[in-house]
């Protein structure tokens, strides 16, 4: 239909579909910009900004008394935000709730609701004032730093944005549902955000991924644990993603059994509803292991106690809690904010970059304002100085004048003053004519000149402006920075609580031909010294047992290959087996090359910054590398060391800088030195000489020096002894060491060394697969130059292959493990 203008009736007829489309677009934009999406600069929606500005305008600041919330709401509604009073009050309440905002912007007095979902008291009962940190959002508002606009009835001015001296959009996060889009930005720790921004200022070319060294993840006000993974990383790199968040749950041993303690809950969850849900699941038999449930939370924090029935595993209860309740959830993120009146999708670096550009402009505006004020004051002082230098003439001129206007005009014409200067002279009190006051005016004049020079230098130099911003951020960090509330752990470090992974003590067995399996540790017999081992591990013809390792199904294994590559694998991913089964070939789990073997296995559940992976090769080359460099899962493995031709990695351990390493060779030479003597290097470097070797000798393995323990030395023919650490003198790296066993022809080659206590149990396994346990306390402490005692009788064609140690459980009676015949 063509457009028709009715001039007389002032009516324009248009197609209804066009009008609906245009009106809807106007409405959508109004909701997006005017209500639902926060501004990238101060991280606030209009209603939040108006509440804070209204309280600031009324001087309801942190250092003043609180005022009734009804008064605050009324002021906001009447002056700036003509919408529902309850909507304004709900927003005010949320800004005061410590479980809603990481850094609350409003201090509330009275009932402001609870994490149990209790509603706040009516606004006529509650009172509020600004928090101290909110001053950093409003600071310099009076220095023309931000533009103002007219309010809804054009009777007052309100700021378009607050100066925001810290990136509130990241610190407190933001959420909003608009027309056709939503935003969800999680809160972060103030220290982390400021550190990342300082880094960006110093290095504008820094990548988004490099910024993640400073912002490790969200920091929610309710605490919890974040399981860091690629999805969280992508959230920062692309602006979209999700974070796996779970409650902090611990297992507590009590006199009448075990209990599970819930110490905090995921962000935006209702504790009362969670407790109600758990109770319902217990009644319905879904979590039948629960004997009792109590909410013991008080003003000190959250504590929900769940008593576990006797004989039931608390790990099963935790797994079910995470599966059937909101104690584990995903926080979905979408980084959208208003930029120059339009919604924009952001990644982490873009948020910081746009905020920094905003702060630069704030500082430029601030210093231009200060410069103008300083020049205005200088102009007046110059007039006053002229008057002081001609005080008699000035007084005479004023006395001869009939009125103020005449006096002003006379001063202007006689002394060449401006109108402003003349008025300042006329307003000057007589006490200013004293010598002391005259001196003060001249001193102020000099100070103003210096201040103008300082400000002009700052405005001319980008580096100076950046330094001003950095100093301000550092001061805010010092005044308001705090420890993280939310713990971040990698997927490797996390307790894998699910119904398929129950924490169980197991032994992992790896054979020379590459077969691996896990067996429950209770399936090993405890034998006396000198006994023959049980026939239990089934091997292929020609295969031998290579490594045996004690751990739990929830542990993460790091396999180090002969070529120096690292692979991750959860113990639970290895199928549970019986002794008579061969197990699965390691290539079913790891992508190894044809000539590559597993030569070392470590349990690595954490990746602290101060820990190192130490590698030793068969030819005695040792290398130290930061443990964090392998905190990545790659199907093709992670290269950890460059090897010379013919050399292989034989062992690896995790150590700290203040620890000592003990290296032993097949011929029985042993040396001990501090790993401080080794520089940590990158993954592709080769290493340095760790031990000097005789012809035909080679490195067997290494262990940490734990001085409160004994060193257990075991030979391939079943001889063993314990020796004190002090019998191995501390030396430099690269030496040959001292002999640790006599009569090598009888003992055979050294199989391994490890640290033990008398309360340990060792599991031994022979090349033919015979296995048994024995108590370390049955192995004598001897000197290093002795043969040792014979642990077990071996068949003439059999040798020991490996050992592993375990601690005696508190539940084991008389230091014995329950005997189970694997062939029964």
Shape: elongated
Strand residues, percent: 25-35%
Corresponding CATH architecture of the domain at 505-815? 6 Propeller
User: What is the tally of helical segments?
Assistant: 18
Describe it:
With about 800 residues, the protein is an alpha+beta fold. Among the domains are: about 45-165, Topoisomerase II, domain 5 (Alpha-Beta Complex); about 250-325, Gyrase A, domain 2, CATH 3.30.1360.40; about 505-815, DNA gyrase/topoisomerase IV, subunit A, C-terminal (Neuraminidase). Helices cover about 30% and strands about 25% of the residues. The strands form 13 sheets. Strands 16-11-10-19 form a four-stranded mixed β-sheet. It is elongated. The chain starts with a strand and ends in a 17-residue tail after the last strand. Mean pLDDT is about 85; it is low at about 525-535 and about 810-824.
What's the layout of helices and strands?
Layout (H helix, E strand, L loop, with lengths): L3 E3 L4 E3 L2 H21 L9 H12 L9 E2 H11 L5 H10 L11 E4 L17 E4 L4 H4 L9 E3 L6 E3 L8 H4 L2 E4 L4 E4 L4 H13 L5 H4 L13 E4 L1 H9 L1 E7 L2 E6 L2 E6 L8 H13 L6 E6 L8 E5 L5 H11 L3 E7 L1 E4 L2 E4 L2 H42 L1 H10 L3 H12 L3 H9 L7 H26 L1 H19 L6 E4 L14 E7 L3 E6 L13 E2 L9 E8 L3 E6 L3 E6 L13 E2 L12 E6 L7 E7 L3 E6 L11 E2 L9 E8 L3 E6 L3 E6 L13 E2 L9 E6 L5 E6 L3 E5 L14 E2 L4 H4 L2 E7 L3 E7 L3 E6 L13 E2 L9 E8 L17
Parallel strand pairs: 10-19
Antiparallel strand pairs: 1-2, 3-5, 4-5, 6-7, 8-9, 10-11, 11-16, 12-13, 13-15, 14-15, 17-18, 20-21, 20-23, 21-26, 22-41, 24-25, 24-27, 25-30, 28-29, 28-31, 29-34, 32-33, 32-35, 33-38, 36-37, 36-39, 37-42, 40-41, 40-43
Helix pairs in contact: 2-3, 3-4, 7-12, 7-17, 12-15, 12-16, 12-17, 13-14, 14-15, 16-17
